[in-house]
Amino acid sequence: MSYTAPIRDMQFALAIAGLDKVAPLFGENAAPDLVGQVLEEAGKLANEVLAPINRSGDIEGSVLENGVVRTPKGFKEAYKAYAEGGWNGLPFDPEYGGQGLPWTIAIPVQEMWNAANLGWAVGPLLTFGAVEALTAHGTAEQKQTYLPRLISGEWAATMNLTEPQAGSDVGALRTRAVREGSHYRISGQKIFITYGDQDWTDNIIHLVLARLPDAPTGPKGISLFIVPKFMVRPDCSLGERNDLRVVSLEHKMGINGSPTCVMAYGDGGGALGYLVGQENEGLACMFTMMNNARLQVGLQGVAIAERAYQQARDYARSRVQSRELGSRSPSGVPIIRHPDVRRMLLTMKALTEASRALAYSAAASLDLAKRAPDEAERARHQARMDLLTPVVKAWSTDIGVEVASLGIQVHGGMGFIEETGAAQHYRDARITPIYEGTNGIQANDLVFRKLGRDKGEAARAFLAEIRETEAALSAGPGDDLAAIRRQLAGGRETLEAATQAVVAGLDGDPRRSAVAAVPYLKLFGTVAGGHFLARGAVSAVEHLGGGASDSDFYEARLAVARFYADHILSQAPALLHPIRDGASAVLALAEDQF
Hints:
Elements: H1 7-17, H2 19-22, H3 32-50, H4 54-60, E1 63-65, E2 68-70, H5 75-84, H6 103-116, H7 118-137, H8 140-152, E3 155-160, E4 176-180, E5 183-194, E6 203-210, E7 223-228, E8 230-232, E9 238-241, E10 244-249, E11 260-265, E12 271-276, H9 282-318, H10 339-371, H11 375-411, H12 422-429, H13 439-454, H14 457-475, H15 479-505, H16 510-545, H17 551-567, H18 576-581, H19 583-587
């Protein structure tokens, strides 16, 4: 159940994702030597500190004792090592204590945390999103008060959206905010609040969505508030406890190390809160935090897939069972020699590497959207990141579940036994397609918001990138590149046709577009994954042709890309039918016929 950060694979994925375009914008903060050092040091913390307490944290879980949340043994100490190492401030503004590195580097580091210990890593994830939200929408005073302490890790943050009657329908929330001079009184209940309390930090900054008494109904009447666990004095020291408490902890299927809290605000007259942005514009502010979180949750899918793959691979190398097909020897062999086990492991590896490259590429666009010197290039990358974010979140987390499930299958009956640890990966992965917006919501976002906003222009720009990859494959030698190109071209043609059909259908019955949304996102992710692995195949052939010393590594990259093309990308054309013609069957049954 050990974990080893796949640093060489990460560096290769960064090259595919376009780190060379990002690095010049960050100077010494993205120098190759520094990048290597950052990944190596992060790998040590992941391998030696976080991974060893993953299984024990799952068994022990967090507990609520006399109103105080206590996390599993070792979690608090791991956070202290993490914060003291400066890891919480990696991609943030040096003006507030950050290190100013690109998100393109921060994302692989966060993959390590999530792969090593998902139940632990989901805590810092929310602080990252809060820093982004306050950087974009906070007042100068709010930034000076909160950002240095959140970035350093001295304080942590949460996101408070969900209520018992208002899950994905955030516009139905009932938590109230009443004006009172320079602040507001917040009252209401929130559920499913990850790390709503913990024993890591002296203070927790809750970002809470609430409704003013005179606010419009629906999503347009929501405001966002900073509600600290402990009040903050003018000198930033901590004052009295705010009027909020943890009512209970949820008993979950997975990520048991993380406390998922039911929070009560205002039982004693109202928790003090401070407006972020403008009244009734809270959802726009929160979306800054949510979009950051969605990218990172997609990365959790990559991370848990990597963890499950490593364990299944190691088990398959050591588990001896049955003779090898075609052999006259009656002796058993490691199961990795059996074709079906090889197929499963290659599926796990190919899906993991494809989703990793997609996530890293989205992170590169995030950096370029912020830093590119040309305004048109910044706008292009902003549109690209907006397009890719729901795909990263949904496709990658679906992959995390699929790969974790395959990991259990590779273990056979032992995978169904908790002691092996394979089941934990599946249980932990299963939340990722649900939180931060279910994957169905991500698909609707891709179709109705992203394609609907520009009538498919950003999607067509991405398709043009795929055509460039096809041209590079055509220019390279060998049967492998030719085979990859055939499947990539078929996938790209399917995605072009599907995009055209979806955009054309947006002016019709929205229910039909909603039916097409999930298979369209799956198609997009499948083709995008093939595109990035194909880029990697071209790079691998170039390195092999140049006499690379680590030829085994590049031969493996080429083989994985070929496997993906033959076994995964080849299935993409089958998704066109449910996208174009599948709505009638979904909408045919009356409710009482189910």
